[in-house]
Input
Amino acid sequence: MSLLEFRSPAAGGFFMMPETFASICKVIGRPYAESGCWLPEYQAGIIEKLEAEIEREKVLLDALKKRERERELAGRSVFKSFEEEEKEEEEKKKAKERVSFAMRVFPLLEMLREAQKKEVKVMWGVP
Output
């Protein structure tokens, strides 16, 4: 799959992986397309849905962190093998390296906000 290029007269362009855009399309309830355009009258609804998903993800991540802290505190008195400790450290490393939905959608959300202010469209497609 090719990268998708996003453009708007309101902001500088950027590229996005198709898989990322497919997940965004799922959130906003629209079918994935390799090219298209969002007109100003639809941008407020798209922004609202993306912000709601970011908030949902934040709540979920906070809950996961809280559970991890509780599990860590409960497990401090338990002896762990070297392999268990390595596995645990690897899981923590992966969690830190994870790119959240909020990070992935940030450039699109900023472009949509600017486009909405200036009442211009946002376009995407394979360059």
